[in-house]
Amino acid sequence: MRISEILAVALLQASAAWSSPLESNAIEARSNRPHHPIKPHHLGKPFPQSPDRTKSCTVKANGNGKDDSQNILKAIKDCNNGGHVIFPKDKNFTIGTALDLTFLKHIDLDIQGTIQFTNDTDYWQKNGFYQTYQNATTFFQLGGQDVNVYGGGTLDGNGQVWYDLYAKDIYILRPILFGVIGLQGGSIEDLKLRYSPQWYNFIANSTDVVYSNIDIAGGSVSSNVAKNTDGWDTYRSDNIVIQNSHINNGDDCVSFKPNSTNILVQNLWCNGSHGISVGSLGQYVGEVDYVKNVYVYNVSMSNASDGARIKVWPGSASALSGDLQGGGGSGAVQNITYDTMVLSNVDYAIEITQCYGQKNITLCNEYPSNLTISDITIKNFSGTTSKTYDPLIGYLVCSSPTVCSDINIENVNVKSPSGTNLYTCGSITGIESQVNCTTNGTKGGNS
Ligand SMILES: *[C@@H]1O[C@H](CO)[C@@H](O)[C@H](O)[C@H]1NC(C)=O
Ligand SMILES: *[C@@H]1O[C@H](CO)[C@@H](O)[C@H](O)[C@H]1NC(C)=O
Ligand SMILES: *[C@@H]1O[C@H](CO)[C@@H](O)[C@H](O)[C@H]1NC(C)=O
Ligand SMILES: *[C@@H]1O[C@H](CO)[C@@H](O)[C@H](O)[C@H]1NC(C)=O
Ligand SMILES: *[C@@H]1O[C@H](CO)[C@@H](O)[C@H](O)[C@H]1NC(C)=O
Ligand SMILES: *[C@@H]1O[C@H](CO)[C@@H](O)[C@H](O)[C@H]1NC(C)=O
Ligand SMILES: *[C@@H]1O[C@H](CO)[C@@H](O)[C@H](O)[C@H]1NC(C)=O
Ligand SMILES: *[C@@H]1O[C@H](CO)[C@@H](O)[C@H](O)[C@H]1NC(C)=O
Ligand SMILES: *[C@@H]1O[C@H](CO)[C@@H](O)[C@H](O)[C@H]1NC(C)=O
Ligand SMILES: *[C@@H]1O[C@H](CO)[C@@H](O)[C@H](O)[C@H]1NC(C)=O
Ligand SMILES: *[C@@H]1O[C@H](CO)[C@@H](O)[C@H](O)[C@H]1NC(C)=O
Ligand SMILES: *[C@@H]1O[C@H](CO)[C@@H](O)[C@H](O)[C@H]1NC(C)=O
Questions:
Q1: How far is it, in rounded angstroms, from Cα 265 to Cα 245?
Q2: What residues are in contact with ligand 7 under a 6 Å CB criterion?
Q3: Architecture of domain 79-438
Q4: 164, burial (CB in 10 Å: exposed 0-12, middle 13-18, buried 19+)
Q5: What is the pTM assigned to this prediction?
Q6: Which of the residues in the chain have pLDDT under 70?
């Protein structure tokens, strides 16, 4: 730091200290509950009402990185059933204890300050909430009924220590930053999510939840990349909206996992991701996975591996990596629409695969997927792909023509850097009349 910068910082700190008595009223101020309308598209079903809250509780910050979990739990318990919990602006909170918040009812969490999770990887691996699906764990789990979270503050997962540990051992359990487990009615709005060890948001066993104006960013400063940092994963959930958000991440921007139904995603800016994905599905033998009635509208997708993507495991066991294996499950992907996507430097504009985790297409076709794909519309795409698969811009490969039907690709005006618009096509009846298929066989398709 140069002298002038040191002076500037000192002046800022002095003015902050001087003005703090004046700000103490502002510190206790409640944020108004945001009202982000669900638009331009909406799901048919109305969302439940959320009555005004009648009392306030303020969370005390211990400071200096001391665990604030008990302060948080106390304020939440004091204000449950009709209250408004304030995490004051300009305060830093530390969470070093796994918090089970599945008892919430009629409560607003007004996070204006910053919450950081501790870097104690041993503690979190032992005490994070194990969600079973894909060995997912969470720092906390928030659920119950009628819960609104907002305030303009930040949740920071302290991810660097996890990115570095994962590079040494892929079997560690990296917590998800924001776990919504069993929430019936609620909203998560106006928050910044930073440095998640793994996925940023997991929403499971939930209904009637809206996410709006979420800003996601993070990444690693070491040579160990921040992996599997999906923006959202929906699971066993119905009537969910994700909209008006800005996502800088390194895996799926949004991913619809097993039993995601009636989901609307709109007005997203995604950078660096693996696209908006259905799946992966069919991972577990004996399980039935459905993803139905999904509408994805108006997405800007840059520097990504995919734009629209449907990934299904084949009928026989396959391995994508040591910690991601599967195949043989059954179910259906049905009534999915991707409408309006602007692409820039995206490897595949569209990728449909039923050979997820299986690079040998001959072997994939020998055991067709037990999971059908039908009633898919992909329309109004523009922009350019990356050089990665040029001259190809997409990959449309099912494991048998009998398991994929009614796939419609309309008004997709995407070109590769060399000006082509070719797709790898396989086992999808009638696809040749909709896109330009190459006869060069199969290439890529498993990222
Ligand atoms: C909160 O943490 C940030 C980042 O570490 C720091 O710059 C700021 O001074 C802290 N604020 C308080 C009130 O401790
Ligand atoms: C973990 O956090 C503590 C307290 O902030 C810090 O002293 C320590 O250096 C951190 N450890 C790692 C590995 O980053
Ligand atoms: C969801 O609910 C089911 C059935 O009650 C339960 O087995 C499961 O543990 C819950 N959580 C998740 C993440 O699936
Ligand atoms: C959890 O991870 C272990 C080790 O990779 C794997 O064998 C197991 O199948 C995983 N469980 C789930 C539910 O994915
Ligand atoms: C599309 O999304 C962007 C944000 O990424 C927003 O600025 C724009 O207004 C949206 N367009 C429509 C038609 O909703
Ligand atoms: C988008 O992501 C790339 C890395 O994939 C990064 O270099 C770039 O700065 C990001 N752009 C913005 C505007 O954040
Ligand atoms: C999905 O829903 C179906 C039908 O309700 C159920 O049979 C199946 O077990 C569910 N699968 C998962 C993974 O929850
Ligand atoms: C298909 O999904 C959309 C939501 O994207 C929904 O509005 C529509 O009713 C669904 N169609 C059927 C036949 O369920
Ligand atoms: C792909 O699978 C087929 C059928 O099992 C097998 O004959 C072939 O050798 C495999 N190819 C490679 C490259 O492993
Ligand atoms: C799944 O597919 C395999 C291979 O195609 C088949 O042998 C098996 O019976 C199917 N299982 C179910 C539950 O449909
Ligand atoms: C196929 O490519 C030709 C030549 O670039 C183009 O005129 C035509 O519109 C393409 N067809 C489709 C369905 O994109
Ligand atoms: C087809 O394969 C040949 C030989 O590998 C290659 O030179 C050509 O560029 C390929 N064309 C397309 C459209 O992929």
A1: 10
A2: 236, 258-259, 287-290
A3: 3 Solenoid (2.160)
A4: middle
A5: 0.92
A6: 1-28, 439-447
